[in-house]
Design brief:
This protein has 136 residues and is of the alpha+beta class. Helices cover 36% and strands 10% of the residues. The protein is built from 4 helices and 5 strands; from the N terminus they run αββαβααββ. It has one domain.
Length: 136
């Protein structure tokens, strides 16, 4: 369904932000037009920026033995975001380039930060964490 909303960019509106959100209705959100997410180009830019800030903590909090598969991440956040998988992969690739996370291949090796993230990959807590982390 997300693909239809992004492709058509018609009159569908999501009340609330497009990045990670909790399911539920908050009547205060309908009081401001700023809370309407419309699946347009400017909404995508905002969504990607929000995901860059929100995903590191979500990934780290859900790791087991410093590893989380991309498939598990998508399963956990799939119904909590307006982002398509390619958008999530784009953010994960940027986080890898910034050293926030490392990406492992399904055969066990590590990917270069510039390589596209795929569903079969794993996310690995970096051995040397960045100086200014937002997560514990």
């Amino acid at each position: 369904m997300l693909s239809v909303h992004w492709d058509k960019q018609n009159h569908f509106r999501h009340i609330g932000k497009g990045s990670l959100f909790e399911l539920g209705f908050d009547h205060r959100l309908i009081e401001t037009k700023d809370s309407l997410f419309s699946f347009r180009e400017d909404d995508e830019i905002t969504l990607l920026g929000e995901l860059e800030n929100e995903l590191p903590a979500r990934v780290m909090d859900n790791m087991t033995d410093d590893i989380l598969t991309v498939e598990q991440l998508l399963s956990q956040i799939g119904n909590l975001t307006a982002a398509q998988n390619d958008m999530i992969f784009k953010v994960l690739q940027k986080l890898a380039a910034e050293g926030e996370v490392e990406v492992g291949k399904k055969d066990g090796g590590k990917k270069k930060a510039s390589t596209k993230v795929e569903v079969s990959d794993t996310l690995i807590r970096p051995s040397q964490r960045t100086l200014f982390t937002k997560y514990s």
